[in-house]
Amino acid sequence: MAKITVTVNGSTHTSTVEDRTLLVHFLREQLNLTGTHVGCDTSQCGACVVLVDGKSVKSCTTLAARCDGASVTTIEGLSTDGSMHPLQEGFWECHGLQCGFCTPGMIMAATDLLAQNPNPTDDEIRHGLEGNLCRCTGYHNIVRSVQYAAAKMRGEAVSSQNA
Amino acid sequence: MIPAAFEYVKASSVAQAIALLNQHGDEAKVIAGGHSLLPAMKLRLSQPAVLIDIAQVAELKGIKTAGSTLTIGAGETYHAIATSATVISACPVLASCTGQIGDIQVRNAGTIGGALAHADPAADLTAVFLALGGTVTVQSAGGTRSIAADDLFVSMLMTALDSGELITAVSVPVMSKGQGASYAKLKHPASRYAIVGVAAAVTISNGVVSACRVAVTGAGPQAVRQPSVEKALIGTSGDAASIKAACASAGADMEYLGDIHASEEYRRAMVKVYAARALTDAVAAARA
To answer: Taking the domains of chain A in order of start, what are their residue ranges?
Structure first.
């Protein structure tokens, strides 16, 4: 067993986990943060993407024990004071989801993308989200959603029409 | 899927990791990025009793050039290499290759030392490392030694590393004027593993190809060089006709693997196509 102290969405948790516990199971089953999804479970689909120390990782392929001392951000940690993060708002406004299963991973990967590149082209968004699979929307509206968020985060006026 | 139980140890130094390797022998596995090992463990294809985590060992970090050699710590991630100004200027093919491995989450985790030690048949870096003629620095309780790229890959998933040895650094030559290298791959659309990948490095002196190394990954059990292509191109101008002629023998003398993604015949055909693309780009880079 491993004793780990992890800061998740700003709250510090000290927990005992099995050495083999994967980060996604720690988040979902011990912290009840079920917004992070298990999709393919083979590190291809990206439904489980979270930020560890600001970098996007696939939490189905990350050991919880490795995250001792780390800071983790999940989809539940994005909104502040009840108002949506620009990415959440973008996915809402631009119809960036249908079933929503891939959405938490898409948004967390996009968070990392926009932190590195606040003004991405559509191609850069598609390339940056290549680790996330969506089986509903065909990606077009996901790209628009990220453009909406990017514009809003740059302080520009936004609407779902011009994103 | 959950791996079989194991004991996890976070190593804080190379010496500690090697001591643990010696203590546990074949029961232990080293984990860096873990994106090859953990999936294998989840499928119970690998069931180590002890996992030695070297991802946070500071000695395994660092990217620097000294003279004509670029040296990268084995623990540097693909993303760090792909975005390193030092790598982009000293050996651009290494930056472009690492920038197209998997996806950003894989690149945030995977390391150059891990890729070469694991020697996946469809890894990208194995071919680039062979084409560049690099060396790995390997440390064990007995000291350090260097292994040349040509001697590293022994068979499928097998390298010349002995048990108790750890790759600590990877060195490749700094590209100088007249040299160019390129990596061209046919990628699997979801995993982005190479179905066929070809790396080529050429030197052009006085308008003539004076040195050439070509290596193929993805198509067979291990990355292999293509001596007949290399020999055929040396002494030519490196123009389209010479590349086409040289690539006629690409992939002729190697083992192949066929699977659900591509048959052996298709891979055999694509080796010629991607060898020509890699060589064309490498020659253009050498002339630039």
So the answer is: 2-77, 86-153
